[in-house]
Model the fold of this input.
Amino acid sequence: MENQQRELFEQKIIEKAMKDESLKKQLIENPGAAIEAQTGVKMPKTVNIKILEEDPQTVFLVPPQVIIQGSEMELSESELEAVAGGYNIWSQHTDCGSCGEACAPC
Done:
């Protein structure tokens, strides 16, 4: 299920960026800040986000990373929750549940 949530999240943010040139530029220049502004979810500092833009001559294939349990590359439960959200970041809400503060509607 986590994979499906990530794919849905990626699809939604990409769809928004395709319609909004300003958002697309923000994602390319500072993806963490752009995602936080769109979702209200602060990305953990340990997560490095890279945005790659395809063109007619370039196609990117990104295989999923294999993480060895217990390695330093493995995210903690709280980091996973921050990235995955544990709630629908695209729905209207007033309290995200993770920060305890009122969040603006997504």
Q: What stands out?
A: Residues 2-84 form one domain. The chain has one domain: 2-84. The helical segments are 2-19, 21-29, 31-39, 77-84. The two ends are 22 Å apart (CA to CA).
